[in-house]
User: Fold these one by one.
Assistant:
Number 1:
Amino acid sequence: MGLYIHLPYCVHRCVYCDFTVSVLKQEEELSWYLKALHQESLFYARTYPDKIVDTIFFGGGTPSLFSAEQISELIATFRKCFKTTPSLEVSLEANPCSVTLEKLKGFKEGGVSRISFGIQTFHSQHLKTLQRSHSQEQALLAYHLARQAEFQNINLDFIFGIPEQSVQEFQADIQKAVSLGPEHISTYHLSVHESNPLHPILPLEEVSADMYEWVMNFLPSSGYGHYEVSAFSKPSFQCAHNLKYWKLHDYLGLGVGASSYMTTQEMPWGDHFKNTDSLQAYWKKVQEGGSAKGQEEVLTKEQAQKEYLLTHLRLIEGVSLAAYEERFGSSLIESYGPIVDKLLTWGLLDSVKKMLKLTPRGILYLNKVLVEFM
Ligand code: SF4
């Protein structure tokens, strides 16, 4: 299984953010939070004694606000509590302005094997619009420091569709990223709720579509395979942890607001549960019983089939009809034949060598495709 650890603290809240985030007021909160994570790990190590962890992902929030010692101790705790594979992938999300060479070296020595920087854009006016706390110079410096610290697996995150961002500016961001040579690049379309102050000034959908179409051609021609709607990587550098979400494998989320999907003998189609979003309630629940579950839903076979399909369709290789049949003992076409036919006719889906996948147009109109299956 994959282990997701939510570290919710940030120095401030960016205007577009809809993650479970808490603005850090005092350093002590970090060690207090780590104690709760420790308790929660002990609880789940007892609940799932036979599961083997092969990926750990520290997401946030800003995990790099924690010290190298704190992150190393957490990794040691997980290694002690759970069975782990020797080739454990350990990813950590970092904000360019919260790392130093010493800290990055400490993360590496403590077991972090993959670092992911939230660059978003190299243009200072757009960083300002997004209310990011780093500058272009800090982003470049963080990347070079990570190389000095001997990280051989680096991801850079970018956002497109920022108010007043031109197609050329986005292209310049990605070209600059490629010139640095990270192993992985992710590009996310900026989407915010109607009530968000950025909503009225978002660019036209056609502009964002132009950016996305361009990046879908440019990155593969620069050596970055497009393997998921938002993710591109050099060969063999796909993110093993994120693939668990898209392939509907087991993942256990620890920390406030974290989500899990776990299968067991009693729940073969999976149990979805999510921790409470409130830090106080999280702390209290973990102290009382070890788990901080807020919501839970045990999936029926039909629900699991739908989720398997919806998550796999995000992968560029698509969904294998044979693998689907092996997991569920029934044919995908039997369950979804009329919808698949409709999407094939609309040119949004394609069927190649017993794989059902999105066409380039289908990738652009992903939501339209997903809605049809819901
Ligand atoms: S740094 Fe990331 S998690 Fe923190 S507030 Fe900004 S967008 Fe949200």
Number 2:
Amino acid sequence: MSRRKTRPRPTTGPAAPSAPAVTAASPCPCGRDAAYGACCGRFHDGTAGAAPTAELLMRSRYSAFVARDEGYLLRTWAPETRPTEVDFDPSLRWTGLEIRETTDGTAFHQRGTVTFVARYVHDGEPGALHERSRFTRHDGAWVYVDGEFLA
Ligand SMILES: [Zn+2]
């Protein structure tokens, strides 16, 4: 998942709300039936090392967008496509992730794809990002390469 580029950032509007509060005991934003601290949070803070599969990396990156954890997003971005910073859109709120399909991306692979739908509300309008993301390994750990938008 990358930042969305299709809509211009509004130049006026309410002040940016603070990042949504995600605590260790919160339900994990990625949608698995687990608390954030036992799910994506353990990858964000490094206590569980790197995500072992492309799908878990995808989930943890989605949760990092929700928690606005820029450091984690940049660390898990392939060097060749990594931006210098992550542009969190203050008028966009992620509301749910659904994994549709995965290919490869396990402990036995060097590459993988994850197809997902990420739902959001942007300026009060619900929307969905349908994307097939590509992942590879960098220094042994899964990293996000890029994504293809699907209709
Ligand atoms: Zn999670």
